[in-house]
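Newbie here. two chains, one complex. Structure please?
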Amino acid sequence: MRWQIEVLPREVEHDSLGAVLTRKLKSLGVRSLKRVETARLFLLDGDIDAAAARRVASQLLADPVTEKAHVSEWESHHGEAMGSVSVFKKTGVMDPTEAGVLRGAASLGVKLVSARTGMRYRLVGVPSAKLEQVAASGLYNAAIETVQTGSDRFPAPKGAGRANTHRIEVPLRVADDKALLALSVRGGLSLTVIEMRAIQAHFVELGREPTEIELESLAQTWSEHCKHKTLTGDIAYTGPAAGSLPENARVRNLLKATIKDATEQLNRDFCLSVFHDNAGVIAFDGDWALCMKVETHNHPSAIEPYGGAGTGLGGVIRDILGTGQGAKPVANIDVFCVGTPGLAPADVPKGAMHPKRILRGVVEGVRDYGNQMGIPTVAGAVCFDDRYVGNPLVYAGTAGLLPKSRVAKQVSPGDHIVVLGGRTGRDGIHGATFSSIELHDESETADAGAVQIGNAITEKKLLDVVLQARDRDLFAAITDCGAGGFSSAVGEMGEQTGARVYLERAPLKYAGLSATEIWISESQERMVLAVPQDRISDLLALARSEDVEAFVLGEFTHSGVLELFHGQELLGSISMDFLHGGVPRLEREATWSPPAAELRPIPELDDGTDTLLRLLASPDICSKEWIIRQYDHEVQAGSVLKPLVGVHLAAPGDGSVVAPIPGNKTAFAIGLGINPSFGDLDPYAMAEAVIDEALRNVVAVGADPDHCAILDNFSWGNCAKPDRLGGLVRASYGCRDAALALKTPFISGKDSLNNEYRVGDKTIVIPPTLLITAIARVPDAGAAVSMDLKAAGNALFVVGRTGTALGGSQFLKLAGMRGDTLPRFDGALARETFLAMHRAMRRGLVKSCHDLSEGGLAVALAEMVFGGGFGADVDIDLLPADSGVDARQLLFGESLTRFLVEVAPADAANFESMLDGIPCRRVGGTTEEPRLLLRSSRTGRVHVAAEAALLESAFRRTLPEAMDGEESHHG
Amino acid sequence: MAERRVLILRAAGTNCDQETAAAFAMHGATAEVVHVNRLLEKPDLLKAVGLVAIPGGFSYGDDISAGRVFATELGHVLGDHFRAFIARGGLMLGICNGFQVLVKTGLLTLPDGHGGIIPITLHWNDTHRYEARWVHLSIDPALCVMAPKNRERIELPVAHGEGKLLGGDAQFLAQALGTHQAVFRYCNTDGSEPVWPANPNGSTGHIAGLCDSTGQVLGLMPHPERALLSWHHPRWTREPRREQGDGASVFAAAVAAMS
């Protein structure tokens, strides 16, 4: 018997979700709506009677205080209450609640076969004819969910199908280019004609046709996502020189020539493992090492923001679990690039979602996954630009802690291939290849298979088991199942050995998967382990004891061949050499020329206070508290400096500091640098600037710049087009040169090189966007420095020189301008500055410190003032500056390598002498009255005079108003 | 030394077990983290310990509602063992998700004064959103043996989505206050009425932590295990140095109560 249980709030005031959804739909412009009333739906399937169903309803599903339940037979149900819509996950989409319902019912002695959960929304006031449209605008996502209105029937239970598990040959040897390309497109392989020709030649040589599963294995392994063909290919660059990049250069293997080259040349002894594992690893303290990885999950997040962001984070967490012999994740970061929240709905391109919906979804995705994993989300950023509207960017990163003795791993022939974690389903087929193609206005419906919902608890159980198994020596090597699924994980692990795989052994979420689907499915929350034969029974027992599924998929061999079986039938057999080494090198053209000159003159500075308040409230600069407070940033109890600091815990800290080892004061800081406005003008200079910014952020909180590593994440437009690729070449050289000058090595990176959105014949290209993440050691947690002013009567210093450039600044962005010239980077001086600042901090001379970034001196000092609840009085003409600067640059310029530093009067001379040789000037002091004064002694003008409370409220109001406001201006 | 032994009970999705164990260890107890499957296999493990702590996290993903599935498992399968444990003087401490679990197991109840109990639950925050922030708490130490002694007020972080304590009848608040079962309440330092965010979830009577009528079973939404060290405090860089965080007072009292 199947039962439907509807769980409803007893009183309107218990329906807090309904209240939230009412506000949300109204803010999206649904004027007829009076209120949303919600109910939860459970469809239970099992051999149970009405009494058992009622017991489950009253003792498990409905809260005894706030809810009531209606139990009815599923089959007898004849449709919906008027004015309501019911939303269910599509068949095959992860429904994390099902497991809880089954386990809870079992505790009550009720055995269920399956359960399905959904939501019913009653939209009071909305005419029936408009129900579906309103629901689609904010209550469900057609990519993963299905909706019933009116008298539709409920979804049938998950059905079983039968799919092909036999060997399927694909005739390829006599195909011409056109046929080869058609094959690639039809199969969703994303392989080029040149690559298809290489595969053809290989099988001609073998004297047989390839099989479907072999082609899919090659497509996955050769995908841009897995092989970075663009970055490692050959590039003919046409454009001006920049740093070590010559004019019109031929570059062989861009990645090797730039980012990896810097790391190799620097050869820092704290680098323990760089570029070859799932994350980069550096020495930390004593027997401990730190690792870090940052990933993008852009295309899935465009189609399903919540699921895309959540599984993006889930994936990078698995990267850390799969680093060395398994690291413990200790901190997460997230960075989003989205359209502006005020974008008029009419200006949202067809097929795309409104930026507010995207932002809300990605925040909730990171929140639910990260919080449930028990990993603090400690740092982040959001960039707003309407070119991200159809192709938002979602970066997720994780830092991990692992014993130094566990950095290396080794697969040996004879080891079992063990899969641990979630079951395999049809979800996420072709994610690796999908990430490399352009989004378009039908992506939402056409590519839904590439999107998934994660189940954080499955991954948390996996984490618990992996770390115990590591400490009990139960496996030799581990990697995560990410893009490409088993095919990538087993293919990579077995590269040096060979592997034999039996696909029928994989536990499936539901019947009906073909062998190829099992092999390439990207179902979440799975890890692949190499387990020595004498450890296998202990490993399987450990997994069982924690309710984690584990099975032996096959074994590593010494054949050098990847052999794929289903039962007795050999479905495919590819040499590891060809799989990993057969991909033809890409050859590409790249061009770059400077953007057209800005025609408008730089705006005059009328009212500095007003400009400052507008900057503080601008989306890029404003407080991200609305996001931050939804994240658990203190779980694991390692938090030293939280993302929000100061007297009201409302001021933005530069970098977050975490002490991850219980009882140990050694900590680490994470800093982020990102500035797409700079990328529009020159990606080379942008790369320098964002590396400088990431390092400023960690130095400002007390981290050691000489024990610091960085990670690169490029998100670019379609790099098959020369004008996009040219910027990437410049950015890569900027990375190389800045890293060398700062003696700061890259340890890991990832690129996403096709971020464009096509509507009809119009293409929206994202600005070149480089995220730099810095991770650095903080020698003593108790000596970390926060950015809020600490006392009245202290001296204020500006460290670093202010130049004339205003290009890409937030000051110009306010005026709708871009400017021409970007700030100059002096790498050698930057390194000396960072080292000197750190020495002064270690001496305890620095009371507070804030880096100068977007919005320049005025924004930084305003944040210090309302952070501290004290005032500041500064003469801008005292700043170390180039000739030709005026108040606009001094107040709002974004020159690099600059800090504001608060020093006790008694320490001022000492501080200055420690900064000897570095531009550094005492510019004013702190005052009792919480008021910001920025004056010019040269002109006698007071440019800014504002109370701390006013500055703080300007800074804090933008996102709450945009995201929670009843009626938005444009909505 | 059975009395000084603490069992930290974890399930799938528990995520504050390590720091909770560390907090007890810092205060002289022997803490062992035990998966609920082990306790289901061998309920007698309870006989060897003096305190069972249910730490924070998202047990079973907080599917259905926060703590509900874990509570159903503990209440229905192990309920008699826990009741016997409490009857022989055992202590239970539920933090955040642990509080939600204790309330929903029926092990932490509020008597109505006439032989029945007032149904209680932890409902969604008024914002219907998970929020992490620091709060001030006042303490009523009269009944609960684990309440910090000689502290009028402490400061701890909260991090939850479902922390609004609701009672099923009109007597709920008077009864909770009158019996001194409302051990922790959100407050403002100046004594004024704490509205959001000082009361982060809209909890009735600003109640943040509740004990049972024996004073041996305590649940609270805030996280004392995240406020042990001087640098855990969010304003430590600008305030006089603390020797330890306020959360230590909760663990000190709990361990002392075991002796």
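Moderator note: Chain A touches chain B through 63 residues (CB under 8 Å). DSSP finds 32 helices and 40 strands in chain A. Thread marked as resolved.
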